[in-house]
Specification:
about 70% helix; signal; about 0% strand; globular; about 110 residues; Cytochrome C; Cyt_c-like_dom_sf; electron transfer activity; mainly alpha
Length: about 110
Amino acid sequence: MNKLLLIVLSLAIFTLSSSDAAIYKGQRIFIKKCLKCHKSGQSFIAKYKMKKWKKLMRKKGKPLAAIHLKSQKAKKSWKYFKSKKYAKKSKHLKQFLVEYAKDSGNVPACN
């Protein structure tokens, strides 16, 4: 019984730590790719509620990419939003944006 409990706790800790890593990866992506244009960072993320961020990031972030690809102001980011790298890593960005959305009550760290 103790071994079973230990295994369950280990899996729970692993699951929680891996989800935090995804948020961290999303934050890193945001800092590298998004702050160039969205300089207000924290206030930009808190601009939308969780539901809106989830909607923008569905289907590997295609709706968010479409907004950027239609905007001449975002011309610098077109290459990134067309890349496979964006589609592959969009899940981390989504998790970060949802975690710190307007209605989440969370504030991202300053690192």
